[in-house]
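Work through what follows:
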Amino acid sequence: MKILIIEDEAPAAAKLTTALEQAPVEIELLGITGSVRDSVQWLQQNQRPDLIFMDIELSDGQSFRIFEQVSIDCPVIFATAYDEYWQEAFECNSIDYLLKPIRQEKLEAALKKYESLKQHFAGALEQLRNWQQHPPSYKKRFLIKRGPDYVTLKTDDIAYCYAAHKLVCLIDGQGQRYLLDKSLSDLERELDPAHFFRLNRKYLANINAIRKLKGFGKGKLLVELHPAAPEEVIVSSEQTASFKDWMDA
């Protein structure tokens, strides 16, 4: 763990360094600065630390001024004798706020929090990379049995789908109906969410099939589909906001 200490009092910096060395983590101290000016210069000229321990009152002003002059994208643990700046601290990358004199167990708890956050975001980043390298694939067509024959229906040709008993009815742009032996939830996972939206428990529609929206009282929406649906299709008030965002994407 590569650490920068920003602290203007030499005894406090030395004490923090000793406490970090005693913590059950591997520490590499990259440097110690004691002023806003020196800290800005150090951050501009050196490699990015993994974590910064930062006092608030420095020799030439408050450390919050550092953030106004240089971009800091790593976590910060504030270590200060003042308890009134915690709100400003958490607006400046802070993951913890330690009051002096710093107890060893508080310091180690803060380091543990950093490690936990690091693992969490590393996992999220890995998932994002995997998704970028292997984006989800969606169905392009369905093979559907009609009597003794089979026909293919392109996903782009589906206007909307609705649940009917234990089957799903697919309606194409000409109003033709096709029966599919699966649930609407299964079908929803197979269709691209950029083009299809689950309007309610019963209906899943292609954006190209949505002709008109009307207010339906208490925040609900009445959706007019083409071809016309066999019943009123209503989006609940809980779904209205996300549906509008999807329509406006």
